[in-house]
Design a protein that fits this description.
567 residues, alpha/beta, Rossmann fold, 3 domains, six-stranded parallel β-sheet
Length: 567
């Protein structure tokens, strides 16, 4: 068979049922074979839609997303999405076409060094120049994307590799073994960690995205139930444990919930699970919890003590670690005695609740709360990036497994719509709710065509404040209200825009219409775009100023109208 046939057969054997892509000249041979395959191909309207779609698919299913693109601009249009998946540890196999081997380096038509371009933003990447290396590269790339800390892997394949033929069962797979076994003292560490937790007076669990990547949600819930240690999450860890009493206190960090940030600032032992300790959580890492004993568990040893010094750095899969630690605690019949700590946290939750001032203008928070109230069967919640993202993280209580999808590390505007599309394909029949802004929505709006084509049950709520909300907020708070190029003086009619794509369009401009319109959106079986005209001046509170500590929050406390500091 030829190279194109082998690639498609390989994907079929790996159980790939769906790929996202956009064809072009050098991949036509691959598409010719794919067009006769059982694999479903989703023709997005832009390559960025394809990579974000594969990303959303991978996040909600736990499977590897697959994305295809042609050479040159087709490949370079994937770059933002690859970087996004890399920072959020999402397994994606990216296959790009390349000009023929003899044409590489000659500035040929639609040639770009995509391997060089993406080297810093992939877990690994390959340029296949010999046909007999194709089987080995595909197998290793698939494993690299999934094993350990997941991530995107790119394979760049020249045009003549697609067309060349070989007796592949006898092809030589001579790739070197790059895997170096690590010495792991987990068994020895467990004894010391169990002792530290038992003696802790104010312990706290910090759950990051690694909990979800490792499928450790049930293990975390069981450990939380036995130890009674309270849990906070990062943005990427939202949904790792249900946000309800006995579950998560909510997100910590720059826009974290007050009780969660206060618990973080005053804990004496922090058990961090699959978290990167990004600057959005730590602020100035030099000032982050200097007196706290930090136990940091991560599958990637490069993350340990990278941003924050770990007293107990543990290289382990989160699920494995939690099961072994719980087993040890049960064998010793020991757990921390922390009732005063739980009482204090409960007091903070009651005293410092999230609040906003209702007025004549529609507020983003009330929309999110109403959508959450009316949603049934725990829909998949997707966000774009900006103020609405933080409002959703604060006000939407996620309970289902792998039910929260957002761009964390890269903060990619335009991620939301194609990611929601990918999520809908990944879990057919389930409702997807997308919260997005008028800025981010317009960056990838063309993917509405795919939603209309497949009648995907995606409910899009555009929180339209006619500005770049988070930019405007920072300009108000930290640049003396100098709104330089952050306000939109014109914009489309989003209802008509949706209808032009064949999608149902609705609008909410007043609070009294909110309940009825949300109900109409959910009752409609196909995709819906709901434009919500919201207060342009509404800010995301609380907020920790740049470099601040977890307890140095600006917000409205005790129902007061003005913004004050809590520290």
């Amino acid at each position: 068979m030829n190279g194109a046939e082998y690639i498609v057969k390989f994907l079929e054997k790996k159980g790939v049922d769906l790929v996202f892509g956009y064809p072009g000249g050098v991949v036509l041979f691959l598409y010719d074979v794919l067009g006769r395959s059982s694999i479903k191909h989703i023709l997005t309207r832009h390559e960025q839609g394809a990579i974000h779609g594969a990303d959303g698919y991978a996040r909600v299913t736990g499977r590897t997303g697959v994305c295809l693109a042609t050479s040159g601009p087709g490949a370079t249009n994937l770059v933002t999405g690859i970087a996004n998946a890399h920072l959020d540890s999402v397994p994606i196999l990216v296959i790009t076409g390349q000009v023929g081997v003899d044409s590489i380096g000659r500035d040929s038509f639609q040639e770009a060094d995509i391997v060089g371009i993406t080297m810093p933003i992939t877990k690994h990447n390959y340029l296949v120049k010999e046909l007999d290396r194709l089987p080995g590269v595909l197998e290793e790339a698939w494993n690299v994307a999934r094993e350990g800390r997941p991530g995107p892997v790119l394979i760049d394949i020249p045009k003549n590799i697609f067309t060349g033929t070989a007796d592949f069962p006898e092809a030589v797979c001579n790739l070197p073994n790059r895997k170096i076994p690590l010495k792991n003292g987990l068994t020895r560490q467990l004894e010391r960690i169990a002792k530290v937790l038992k003696e802790a007076q104010r312990p706290l669990i910090f759950a990051g995205g690694g909990v979800i990547s490792s499928g450790a949600e049930e293990a975390l819930a069981e450990f939380r139930g036995y130890s009674e240690i309270p849990v906070v999450t990062s943005l990427m860890g939202k949904g790792a444990i249900p946000e309800e009493p006995g579950g998560s206190l909510g997100m910590v960090g720059m826009h974290g919930r007050p009780a969660a940030n206060l618990a973080l600032s005053q804990c004496d032992v922090l058990l961090a699970l699959g978290a990167r300790f990004s600057d959005r959580v730590t602020g100035n890492p030099q000032n982050f919890l200097p007196e706290t004993c930090i136990i940091h568990v991560d599958i990637d040893p490069a993350e340990l003590s990278k941003n924050v010094h770990a007293d107990f750095p543990v290289v382990s899969d989160v699920q494995t670690f939690l099961k072994l630690l719980l087993q040890r605690l049960k064998e010793e019949n020991s757990k921390p005695t922390i009732q005063p700590w739980l009482t204090q946290i409960n007091s903070w939750e009651k005293e410092f609740t999230l609040s906003y001032q209702q007025g004549s203008l529609l507020k983003p928070q009330e929309i999110i709360k109403e959508v959450a109230r009316q949603a049934v069967n725990e829909p998949i919640v997707v966000t774009d990036v900006g103020q609405h993202q933080m409002f959703t993280a604060q006000y939407y209580p996620v309970k289902g497994k792998r039910n929260f999808v957002t761009s964390g590390g890269l903060g990619t505007m335009g991620f939301g719509l194609p990611a929601a599309m990918g999520a809908a394909f990944g879990r057919p029949g389930e409702t997807v709710v997308l919260f997005t802004g008028d800025g981010g929505f317009q960056m990838t709006v063309q993917e509405l065509a795919v939603m209309a084509q497949y009648q995907l049950p995606v409910k899009v709520f555009i929180l339209n404040n006619s500005c770049l909300g988070m930019v405007r907020q920072w300009q108000e708070l930290f640049f003396k209200g100098h709104y330089a190029h952050s306000l939109f003086t014109s914009g489309p009619n989003f209802v008509k825009l949706a209808e032009a794509y064949g999608v149902k369009g609705l609008q909410i401009a007043k609070s009294e219409d909110l309940k009825v319109v949300v109900q109409e959106a959910f009752s409609y079986p196909g995709p819906v775009v709901v434009e919500c005209i919201v207060d342009q001046k509404e800010n995301v509170l609380p907020i920790i100023p740049p470099g601040g500590k977890p307890n140095e929050m600006l917000g409205r406390w005790h129902g007061e109208a003005h913004v004050s500091r809590l520290s």
